[in-house]
Amino acid sequence: MSVDRPNVIIVVLDTLRKDYSKGIEELLIRNFGFVGFENAISTSPWTIPSHASMFTGLYPLYHRVHESKSRKVPDVKFRENGTYLHEVLASVGYTTYLLTANFFIGPDFGIRKFKEFRDTLKPLIEDREREELNRVLKKYEPRNSLELIWALVKEKKFTLPIKILWRLLDRYGEGWPRDKGAKVTEKLLLEMPVERPAYIFINLMEVHEPYSFLEGFTDAPVVKRLLGEEPELVEKWKKGYGRQVRYLEKRLKRIMEVIEDRNLMENSIVIVTSDHGQLLGEDNRLGHGVFLDDELLRVPLLIKAREEIEETRNWVSLAKLKPFVLSQIKGEKFDLTSDYVLAESFGTHYPYSNISKDKLEIVENLEKYRIKLYHNEGKAIFNVEDWTFENVESENENFEKKARRIIVRHLSLFTGGNLSETHGFGYNPHLQQG
Q: Residue 401: is its pLDDT beyond 90?
């Protein structure tokens, strides 16, 4: 590693889709000298696999931190093994800091090896309460915080709803759900001692649901929202999402000013991106996960590095952030872009129950491994389990054959080369269990 090692700062604007990020991109390019990338693609439509790709430099199939038919939240967890970016940087003398408003990105879900960990959004549920709460969520599937509290009362869990309500009111008094930790992040960056070289990873949740107090915080209806069973929320979410993006822009400007004032921007690699987007009524769907729509996979990516970076319209996968950072530290050249990138989904990431038979059939059809290919010649979605293309968009009549070859190559690496275009992927218990 170079003796003059740069600081590394990565800011994830959780749930920010590309087509809503123009103001933030212009702010970072104009005021802080960032370079923007037009075609950045997340490796997954939800938080944990996407972050794992940033941390490991691998697609979900290979880092294995993803959902499956048998594994859902809360059992999808990170597996720190010495190869995660924060572990690699710590091994060469970096002091590592994690500032996160997203409870997925923290100790409860396997991220424990940062030297400094700060939870920027007060938790509503303590660890000892989680098992009790999960049982009630599965039984009643409340649609908002008020329904959850009523379900807990019916289960004679009187203490927990009082605690949750008190914590909700406490959050609300501090600006939640408009502010979901950005102010605390700014304060920490302003005041906390920073040992250099430093690696600071920040997750900001401002544009993630909920968008109103009464909408609540529970993730119980995630699958139903994605199936289009909450149509009355579409307009509310569109307005709320846009409002939160504007608020995030203001807070991000101040955060960047603090980083600049503390000279943390100087001699540094600073990356601002998102882990995935958000469906806001497309096909009447709300939220994120499962689907491989552009609104979920196309994300902003802005970089400020020591060496000049050229803007490009080629594809960039978030899986390339780790090798890019390490190459910058070593002073080596590294091409972030590719002719193609991939994204993957293995089904729903939340468990589901009490779903009608017609909806259950739809969900079961979603519980398949799918790959989306973004290529300079077109796009395609491949259903690996059924071994068929579900969608192909290209003006090149030979594109489907090219796409198949790329996907087969991707899968062959996982199976040790025991795969051909003729016999398909088939059932792989290692893949299903992860």
A: yes
